Amino acid sequence: MAVKPPLSELPIKTAENGFYRGFSVNVTVISKIIISLLVVWCIVWPTQAGRVLGDWNAAILAQFAAWYIWVVTAFVIVCIGLAIWPAAGRLNLGVEGEKPEFSNFSWFSMMFGAGIGVGMLTWAVAEPVAHFKNNPSVIQGVTTALEADNVRTAYVWSYLHWGLGAWACYAIAGLSLAFFSYRRGLPLTIRSSLTPLFGKALSGNLGHLIDIVAVVATILGVAQTLGFGVEQFVAGLTRIGIGGLAHADGSATTLGIIVALLVIMGASTLSALSGVGKGIKWLSNINMVLSIFLLGFFIIFGATFFGASAFFVGIWDYLVALPWLSFNVYASDGVEGSKSFLLAQWQGWWPVFYWAWWIAFAPFVGLFLARISRGRTIREFVLGAMIVPSLMCFVWFAWAGGTAIDLELNGNANGVILDAANGDKIFAMTEFMLAPIAQALAWAMAVVIVVLLMTFLVTSADSAVLIVNTINAAGDEGPKARPHIMFWGAALAFVVGGLLISGGTGAIQTAMVIGALPFSIVMALMCIALIKAIWNDGRREAAGVASTIDPETSTMPAE
Known about the structure:
Blueprint: H1 25-44, H2 46-84, H3 86-89, H4 104-133, H5 136-139, H6 151-162, H7 164-183, H8 195-198, H9 205-239, H10 254-274, H11 276-301, H12 304-327, H13 339-372, H14 378-409, H15 425-434, H16 439-472, H17 482-503, H18 506-543
Helix pairs in contact: 1-2, 1-9, 1-17, 2-7, 2-13, 2-14, 2-18, 4-6, 4-11, 4-13, 4-14, 4-16, 6-7, 6-12, 6-14, 7-13, 7-14, 7-18, 9-10, 9-13, 9-16, 9-17, 9-18, 10-11, 10-16, 10-17, 11-16, 12-14, 13-16, 13-18, 15-16, 16-17
C-alpha cells in the first residue's frame, strides 16, 4: 500500500467582516454564552447552582475518580516513552533544522510562570503542612498527624500532586499542538492535534465542539488559579499595611477582591496586548529572578538541612511509591466516617481535584508551551517541560514547606503557620522568621512576595487571554485579536470576581472539576493521535515521503 503524505491543510471558517472578523463565530460566541450563563447562574441563584454543581461533582468523583487517576498516569507514560523512543525523541517541533525562538532561560521562565509558578507561593508552604496534618497514612493509623514520622509521607503526596503527573498533562497538550502546527502547518488550535484520527471532519462541527470544550476548560482552570491568587494577594496587601481589604478571618472583602482584580487584570491585559515576545517574556524573566531570590532565602536562612533531606529523601520515596500511587483508587464503602469512606473522600479532595485542575489548565498551558517551543526536539521538550519543572517544584516544597514544618515540629512557631489561612501561610512564616530581627525586614520580604505574586498572576492571566483568543481565531494570534484580548481580560475578571464575591472559590472549584472531564477525553485522544502520527512519519521517512511542511511555502512539498 502506498504511503501518503500527512494532512497539512485544515480550513476553519472564520468571519470575513464585523466585530468577529478573523474569528470562528461558532467557537467564540458559544464559548462566551456558556461562560456567561455559568457566571449568571452562580451569582443570581447561588444556592441552586451550588447544590446542582455539588451533585454533579459528587457523581463525577464517585464514577470517574479512577478515570482521572489512570488517564494522568497514561500521560506520564506516553511523554516519557516518546522522549526515550529514538524515532520520536529526535524529531524537531518545527521544520528540520529550525532553531528555537527563545533562549533556554526565557523559555523556562515563561513555561514555569504560566504553568505553575503562582501555585508555588500558596502551596509550596500550605500543601506539605496540610499533608503533615492529614493524609491516607494518618487516616489508616500508619503515621501520626503533626509528628516526625509523618514528614516523609507528607512529601510523597506533595510531590505526587506537583510532579510528573501535573507536567505530563501540559506536555501532552503542548507536544501535540506544536507537532501538528509547526511540522504539519495546521492551525495552532486544539482540533489540529486530532487530525490523524478524524481528518478533515475537524473543519466542521466536531472541530468546533473540541475547541469550545478547550476554551471553557481554560477559563475555568485559570479562574480557579486566579481565585486562589486573589485571596493570597489581598492577604499580602494586608500584611504590608493596606487595610480594609480583608475580613477578620483573613478572607478578602468585596473591596479587596475588586482592588486585586483591577491591578492584576489591568496589568495582564496591557501585557497581553504587547504579545509573547515583549510583556510576557519580560514579566516571566522578572518573576524568575525574584523566585530565585525568595527560594535562596529559604535555603540559606530557613531549614537548610531539613529541606535537603525533604528534597533528596522525598524524591526517592516519591519515585518508589509512584507506580502504586499512579494506579491506586480508594473505594468507599459508603459508611460515613469509616476508613474507606475517609480515604476515598481524601483522594477526591486532593489527587482527583489536582488532576482535574491540571487537565483544565492543559489547553491554556499546552498551547502556550507550543507557541514558545517551536524549533525544539521532542526529547528536549519533555525534559524542559516535564522533568525540570517537576524538580523546581520539589525544591520549593522541600525548602519553603520544609522550613514551615521544621518550625512547627520543633515547637518554635507554636501554631502561627498551621493556623494561618493557606494563602497567608508564607507571609506568616517569613514574618515569624524576620520580625524578631527587624520588623522592617519582615515588611520588605512581604513586599517582595506581593510583587512576585502579582507578576505570576499577571503572567498566567495574560497568557490565558492570548491563548483563548488564539483558539477562537482558528489558531491565528495576529493584531486583529486586540479588542478580543480586552474583552476576555474583562470577562475573566468578572468570572473570578463574581464567583468570589458570591461564595468564594467553592462553586468555581466544583465547576472546574466538571469542565475538565470532557477535555480529559480530548487529551486521551491526543495521545493516540500523536503516537499514530509519529509512527506513520517513520513509514513516510522510509518511503521517502515528506512529513513536514516546506518552510518557504508553509505547505507540504510536492512529491
